[in-house]
Amino acid sequence: METLLRIAGRNSRRCRGMLRSAALISFVSCSSSPPSGNANPTTDGSSSGCNTLVDDGPLVTAVAVANAAPTPSGGAITDGRYVLSAITLFTGPGGPTAAPGGTLSAVMQINGNVMFQVATINGEEARYASTFTTSGMTISTNDTCPAPKAETHSFGATATELSIYAASANGTLEQKFSKR
Questions:
Q1: Range of the domain at 174
Q2: Separation of alpha carbons 68 and 76, rounded Å
Q3: What whole-number distance in Å separates Cα of residue 154 and Cα of residue 172?
Q4: Could you say which of 2, 107, 113, 176 would form a disulfide bridge with 20 (CB–CB 3.0 to 4.6 Å)?
Q5: Do 92 and 67 contact (CB within 8 A), yes or no?
Q6: What pLDDT score was predicted for residue 123?
Q7: pLDDT of 20 strictly over 60
Q8: Rounded to 5 degrees, what angle do the CA atoms 166, 169, 172 make?
Q9: pLDDT attached to residue 36
Q10: DSSP 3-state of 30
Q11: Does residue 60 lie in a domain region?
Q12: Per the structure, how many domains does the chain have?
């Protein structure tokens, strides 16, 4: 789940790990039908690898707010295509409100317990393929491409949105994805 929570730029070291989400989070996809018409946009063997998704999501700029993060709700994650619609760093009451910086777009395709993501972060493309499991308000991801990596985050899901939360010393980063 090399979440699309990677923000490049002057704060990239601090926020890079956050912006990977939820392979889910980046969590990323297409529509209820993957772009190439396949049931699963799998590794294509090219140098871009991992998947063949098209990143046609809107550009999103991260914002920081001096509030506590929402309480994750868990829920059922439904198959389909999701696009990144907001990134918010909750820094806690009285916390800083300087935005982490950077712009990104992301698309995620979820098919069962498999997640494909593509994101463009400050002009640089990243692709991921992951498997995931959920339990209560926790999502555990295992990247299978480009390199193995396991992560655990909090999440909330409805029929039309998926939010992934990554806690760090700087606050809690919420990646909100809207279903297309």
A1: 12-179
A2: 24
A3: 10
A4: 2
A5: yes
A6: 87
A7: no
A8: 30
A9: 34
A10: coil
A11: yes
A12: 1
